[in-house]
Amino acid sequence: MTKPFMVHDPVHSTVVLNELEQLLINDHCLQRLRKIQQLGLADTVYPGANHTRFEHSIGTMQTASIIGNSLNLCQEDIEKIRLAGLLHDVGHAAFSHAVENVLLRNPDLQPVLNNKKCSSHESFTRFLIQTQLINSDQICNLIEKMNGVDPVYFLKEIGNIAIGDTENVAKPYLSQIISSDIDADRIDFLLRDSYHTGISLGLIDVDQIVQSLTIKDNRLVLGAISESSYNEDLVITAAESMLIARSHHYTAIIHHPRTQAARSMLLYALEDAIYSYEKINGKNIATNKVKDFFTLYNDNDLLNFINKYGSGRSKELVSRIIRGNLYTPKVRFNQKRLPSSTKMSLSTIARHGIACKMFESEFIKLLDMENILIDLNVATGLPKTMRFLSGEFESFLYDESALANGLVRAISRNISLTCFVQNETDVSDLEDMSILETKMLDIVNKLSPKLLRFVREDQYLAIEGILLLFYSVHSTFEELHENKISIPRIRNITWLYRTIKEFSNNEVLKYLFDYKFHEKFGFPYSEKVYEHVQLLVAMGMVDEDLRYYEKHGRIKQRYEYVLTNEGVLYCRKLVDSYKRELEEILNFIKRTQHQIPRDMLSLPKSRYK
Question: 154: Cβ–Cβ under 8 A, 6 or more apart, which residues?
Answer without folding.
Answer: 143, 147
